[in-house]
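Troubleshooting: if your tokenizer reports a length mismatch, compare your output against this known-good record of 536 residues.
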Amino acid sequence: MGVHDLPDLLTRAAGSRPDHPALVEPDGRRLTWSELDAEVTRVAAGLVSAGVVAGTRVLLALGNRPELVTAYLAVLRAQAVAVPVNPDASARELATVLTDSGARYAVSDGRAVDACRAASADLSLRLIVADDVTPARGELALAALTGDGPLPPLLDRERLAVLLYTSGTSGPPRGVMLSHRALAANLDQVGALEPALIAPDDVVLGVLPMFHVYGLAAVLGGVLRQGATLLLVPRFDAEETLALVARHGCTVLPVAPRALERWLDADDLAARLAPVRLVLSGSAQVDRATWEAFGTAAGMPVHQGYGLTEAAPVVTSTVVAGEVPAAGGTLGRPIPGVELRIVDEHDDPVLPGDPGEIEIRGANLFSGYWPDGADGPDPDGWWPTGDLGVLDDDGSLSLVDRVQETIVVHGFAVYPQEVEDVLRRVPGVADVAVIGVPVDPPVQPSDSADEQPADEQPADDEPADEEVVAFVVPAEGAAVAGVRTAVGERAATDLAPFKRPTRVEMVERLPLTVTGRVQKGRLRHLERRRALGLLP
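Known-good structure output:
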């Protein structure tokens, strides 16, 4: 079944499974596929009547609730452009997206309405509010939108469908331009996997935020394609979410690695996950210890995958190989229709087993960054991801680190993930993040040398470009001084001298994205402020 666009999938589901539940809320309220289709048609016509035309950007600032799904699909059906954002974003952050995207319409719920109103104070913005908000003067109620006449079908699949702002690793967020073609292509690519990640009779946990590409394109899109059922969960809470899985009989759990870590503390995990047939983890690679511990506690393996916003989003999956790797160390092979290669700094293929930058090609790739399509795929269709990876003998991918996060010490590359993996195993360490900080004056290397052959040790007179700095979160109840000492001892034992942190910062928490990925850009900003004397 080839996908034309997402509204087309909705029409198919409403026609083939009209009375099957499409969306379910924790309290049991639900919309069938026919009811959802009717709601989307009403809202799409209402948006057009309110002045939305093809190509208009519409900001969506809502949590995981039926109104978000309705508004999102209605925007696409009206051939406008959806701009999903975090409903907990600040007014300043929303104003930045509104200004950059040129959005003049926004749909908001109670979580985001105050920030939306504040952000729109100096902008010409028409605000549409969900049913948990009383419309202020000049605002429209989403439930009251209505219009006349059928909307024309989508003729150009290259038309922009979604503008998703990435968190940015070294600069401000950029708008990723995803066309109807890219979204549909990735659903077809994932749909070719066997066993199916999502099947028609599945009840899928919808706890991943749907302003993020994983929840929006992979989870909601997969449910749409199969006419399955999506349980919408506004926020993740380890105990409450497990209770919802059991109560609603969830069979597929798409989650981020942090959810797996938190579920490890639950009692009788295997019994509570009895309805589940598949656990899928994305957004970051699950560390080996968590992967093994969860598999043992839950009595089922975790399938991993690799994806990016720019790929709409799925690139690889362990499902492709037909089985979960015994060591849980890879992110699987490329899914059907996606090509992947590993290249060096000259764009030449690396030797098998050597690290290099991951480049991908496929119909699921984005159209470049907003507004002019900059930095998109090259003329041959290849796009450099900025991630460093390794392919093993059977073509399975493992991540090494981000190209931009590689630390250069005396001319040698240090991969933060390698250092983090070592320090995370230290007793008393709850979490850790490693970054490179420019050195001035140069830090002289240690006299000791281990793990690296003598002829591969940095020269004593070679200046260091950066130093390795570790931000460590001590476990609850652990003595900070003791953890700091243990980290230093483990680094001295398990890391070559140039890889060892020259400084360890003990912090209460790390800045995280909504899917649990560390925001290293914020840590680098903290270090820049420290270097300028703005922090102690």
